[in-house]
Amino acid sequence: MLRSAPLPARRERARAAHRRAGEPARLDGGNPLDTALLVTSADIVRRFVAEYHEKLEERFVFPRLEQAGREVQLVAILKHQHQKGRVLTDEIKAAAGAPVASEGTKLAGLLRSYVRMYRPHAAREETVLLPAFRKTLDRDGYRELGEKFEDQEHALFGEGGFEEIVAQVSKVEVALDIDDLARFSPP
Predict the structure, then answer these.
(1) Please, how many CA atoms are within 13 Å of residue 143, restricted to the half-sphere of its CB?
(2) What is the residue range of 166's domain?
(3) Among the four residues 6, 17, 67, 71, which has the most C-beta atoms within 10 Å?
(4) How much is the pTM?
(5) Which DSSP symbol is given to 27?
(6) For residue 137, what is the DSSP state?
(7) Within 10 Å of residue 136's Cβ, how many Cβ atoms?
(8) How far is residue 97's CA from residue 83's CA, in Å, rounded to a whole number?
(9) pLDDT digit string (tens) for 56-93?
(10) How confident is the model over 95-102, as a mean pLDDT?
């Protein structure tokens, strides 16, 4: 959010495996899927998105906006979605650990629910929430908060921990065949 690689963009990349693995042709169609990838992806989402990104918002961003009386309804919705996202992540991990033959359709539905909620969630954060939040801070306050966020990142993931998470996400992307960005360009 406050670093050179924007937090929302990093968070979005961590969620990409949920989207790719949850495509209807993969699970509903009975295509084989290495569910260990989903467990890994759910662990990454839990650690980076829920326990880091969302906790920072809940600790620093939401209270400041509520205190300023800005975007209070949006903040309430985002808080609720954070709770639901944590539940969905746990359910995805549990379903991914079960035999795909019995849980494939359920898993696909959970993944779609996650994506359905978080795509507009992330869009509102970036286009409404964060611009409103930035207006509550001057340049020095914004810089100081960025330093706090980075300190929290190091406390949770260690020095170089972000790079380790990116490496984990990259491995999942390769395994799901979504690592080549050029392939997503229209012909």
Answers:
(1) 3
(2) 7-179
(3) 17
(4) 0.81
(5) H
(6) S
(7) 14
(8) 22
(9) 999 999 999 999 999 999 999 999 999 999 999 999 99
(10) 70
